[in-house]
Amino acid sequence: KEKMITGITPSGEMTLGNYLGAIKRCVEFQDEYDLYVFIANLHAITIPQNKEILRKNTKEIAALYFACGLDPQKSTVFLQSDVLEHAQLGWILNTQSSIGELSRMTQFKDKSQKTKAKTKDYIPAGLFTYPTLMAADILMYDAKYVPVGIDQKQHVELTRDIAIRVNNKYSEVFKIPEPLISENKIKIMDLQDPSKKMSKSSTNPKAIIYMLDPPKVIAAKIKAAITDSENLIKYDPKHKPGVSNLMMIYAILKNITIKQAEKHWTGKNYKDLKDDVTEVLIQTLEPIQTRYQQLYNSKDVEQWLEQAATKARLEAHKKLNKVQNALGLNYNR
Ligand code: TYM
Q: Where in this protein would one find the motif 'KMSKS' region, according to its record (predicted)?
């Protein structure tokens, strides 16, 4: 089986964007691939975090992974900081990448602006070297595919560049990964400002569907979602971003194409659209939330994470040794 790896940063609560862009697809892939999924807590601390909130978000995402259907018997689901080798390989890859290429990362450009505003005076260095740690996460396990939303594609492409560079310069230590972006290039947009992506770090909670939102809250958020004044249900992200976003959410959750969704709403109005989206969201999220409640305080999650980390550590240790050998990071060999 080919390997596949992905992660979510616990810098906030898990959103519908995270689920549709990454986790839902992982659940569908886990029989066919050797799947690794982790909680990227080392990435979370690239922006200032309150430690209690970080812990809570970490615990929440862990329980949600399993509640969404990741199966601890099939997939390796772990906490990034439990596998120390990630940081070590991340350091090594820092030395193999350039300030120029890291400066071109659009996420860095966006986040550094926001973080600067928040911290008033500084941009953490970790925010800049974030992608090299992400490259370490991926290259550590010889992953062939990296299922991510389109917003993370650039980071996976940088990972490829770094891997190819190291392989050429030293020896073939890394497998070259590929981003796995869904066919319809899923990018779930902010409900209040559909020109930007739905992001867990957004300051307007009305704009985001969280995986743990109660049905009433979901209904209210969808009802208040920005559309346009045409009252015409048509998929056109450029001119009708709000409506198109709702259509996309519906189509993915129903496992139908956008064309089929469009047909479904022929002759209908925005109220129908919103009612349908609300209904399918509640249908999908309620059972996940029920499982989540059962898992959140059970010892099972902790045990599953620990078992997976033990397995991941063994592999990471081997890979790191290989890389260290390739670079001459040992006294005698
Ligand atoms: P993060 O936590 O921002 O997002 C987790 C996953 O959700 C996807 N995603 C979205 N997809 C569609 N629409 C949206 N609005 C939306 N928002 C987020 C993201 O594309 C991602 O797949 N750097 C990563 C975490 C990471 C990682 C890795 C991922 C660290 N190391 C190695 C893959 C492989 C991040 O912060 O994702």
A: 197-201
